[in-house]
Amino acid sequence: MDLDQTIYYTGENHDYWLGSISPPIYQTSNFVFDSVEEFKEKIKDEKANYLYTRGNNPTVEVLRRKLAELEGMEDALIFSSGAAAMNAAIASQISRGGHILCVNQVYTWTKRFLTEWLPKFGIEVSFANGADTDLFLSHAKSNTQCIVLESPNSLIFELQDLEAITSFARKKGIITILDNSYATPLYQKSSQYGIDIAVHSATKYINGHGDVLGGVICSRESIIRKIFQMEYMMYGAICHPHEASLMLRGLRTLPLRLDRSNQSALYIAQILETHPKIQKVIHPLLSTHPQHDLALRQMKGCGGLFSIVLNTEDPNKCISFSNALRRFKIAASWGSYESLQMPMVAFEDYSGKSPSVPSNLVRLYIGLENPDLLLEDLLKGLEMV
Ligand SMILES: *Cc1c(COP(=O)(O)O)cnc(C)c1O
Description:
Layout: H1 3-9, H2 36-42, H3 58-71, E1 75-79, H4 82-92, E2 99-103, H5 108-117, E3 124-128, H6 133-137, E4 144-150, H7 162-172, E5 175-179, H8 184-187, E6 197-201, E7 215-219, H9 221-235, H10 241-252, H11 254-272, E8 278-282, H12 292-298, E9 305-310, H13 315-324, E10 329-330, E11 340-343, E12 361-365, H14 371-382
Parallel strand pairs: 2-3, 2-4, 4-5, 5-6, 10-11
Antiparallel strand pairs: 1-7, 6-7, 8-9, 9-12, 11-12
Helix pairs in contact: 3-10, 4-9, 11-14, 13-14
Bound molecules: pyridoxal-5'-phosphate.
Pyridoxal-5'-phosphate (PLP) is lined by residues 81-83, 86, 107, 150, 154, 179, 181, 201, 203-204, 213, 215.
């Protein structure tokens, strides 16, 4: 893949932009026309033309073209958040009486959409362990319309064999949707594995600067057109031009940021793995990961996110560890320049907590800082355990 072409040149039109090197922010709601004939022509295809910013906008369109190309797909749509994108993707593929098969441990708001919202409309949903392909696919039914994947998921990093699942789905006419936020198209290109719809929380690596929420759907033209005309235009959970401009800026350095986080995280994970105060490090590129071979086959890297399980059952010690860290702020997100931690002990009384995620698990996100200083901070924190 010619990454430079996509990241630096695709969708750029400097002549049209008065020579501006950076894509201008078309901060406008409307686009106006001089004649009825011109207007009549433009409304024939609102996705391709500029009419109104809830539909297509030139700044947002540059981002659409780059992200579609990164996933090896024909087109993309940018949403106001990853949750908006994921739930629009799922909603676009189901109808009354349909069934959805989804992996366990999927992102919280995807799970809530599937378990609390869709059943109101007579949609059936099954969850199954995606790490066991045969078992997972045995839950498909004659009315299964789509399969929802997240590989790896972002807490305990379970993978799915994408190729095996999509080849099954294609034969049955089932649409596959992959939340690819963790690996990004740089480390796991969805089209290569036959995925129909790739979804991203652009809030994470694609923007990467902790200042914008965004979501992406990449797919073939016919699917994108359908989503554009329904969920995208109807809900209006769209990306605004100013946010698109910030995400374009973030995207310029995605390969550098991702590789830096990937290398630092692997370096830190390998050292923590041998530490006596740590029961387990969960990172797909460590040989102790149960799906290590699949990870090597399917992903070029892992970015900065992995989990550690502390060698204690005492919640107070887990709390002391997390509170002792100086270079890891406590937060629910990841993918930006700054290192973060998400201690599961904080979720002990939380209603949505998954019983299979232990309280002594701490998810770490390794940002762009000096990895030796991050490691030193973690080692100091472990003295509290
Ligand atoms: C953050 C996240 C989302 C949701 O994205 P938002 O931009 O916060 O709406 C979806 N999936 C995964 C895996 C995420 O980490």
